[in-house]
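Q&A log
Question type: sequence-to-structure
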Amino acid sequence: MKLTQLLGRTWVLEADEMIGLYRLDDGRCILLDSGQRHERQALADILSEAELTPVGVISSHIHMDHSINNGWLRHTYGCLTAAPSGEIHLCRSVVGLRQYQFCYSPGTVAREYGDMVAPVDCPIPAQDGVFSFCGADFSILHTPGHSLDHISILTPDGVCYTGDGVFCGPGLHAKLPYVLDLKGMLDSTYLLEDTRCSAYIVCHRGMGPGMQLPAIARDTRTVMMDRAEQIRALVTRPMTWGELLQAVTTRFSLHSADPILTNRMERNFRLFVDFLLDAGALDLTARDGLSYVSPGPKTAPLVQLYEESRR
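Response status: OK
Response body:
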């Protein structure tokens, strides 16, 4: 893990993903997301080396790679936690977490993701605007789609921390990324494309001058559409969910023997198919108690169908 100054008091913890850090003064900081569970010791070590104490953490959304360390930070440092109000229910209980990890049994959710259950001290309102937290004023831009109430966060230096609102660098190469509502996420990339900022931090995975953010937003749309088009192309006849999943697994080389990963990929695949069904690119029928996914009535490219839906 590496601590890098980006602009003014805004720094970046370069780990498995980019974690934003805003220095309140020489000894206190606010984290933007909290990283992966296995990074706790590395995070503690680098904060100690920099003589920084985290007094707050703002979650861009409640996902395992963004909020699983919130409870640990609270216990270890007395950190206050802020999170989007529309997602607080997810981290209140294991049952709440199942709305995000619906592909797993309650016991599996408790075992694998139970650390995500943690209090939220400061709910972030549903409206865009200034959010005062631990003595600093951040600007909140709601960018839903990747998750129910995903937010992007602008620090007082004008640095835009996008969370998972867009992807860049290695993040663009994910075989089958998670997205709760693909149309909503595509809509949000337009918001980020139009966002004026002095610099950006993309969690997966990059940072740089703000003038680069519009191109990153466009690249994200291109990649997400490409993944959806590849799935659409596999449906040349009526297929059961199992048949289509097998075809997707082969197409994207998702041949894992770990049920945690295979269930996760099945969840991700179904969310892409939801987008294709709503766009009319695929159709859903039933026969003898089974659902079948078939080519849809609309044959135009997805980009065209999506743009028509925005008018």
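Response note: Residues 282 and 296 are 4 Å apart (CA to CA).
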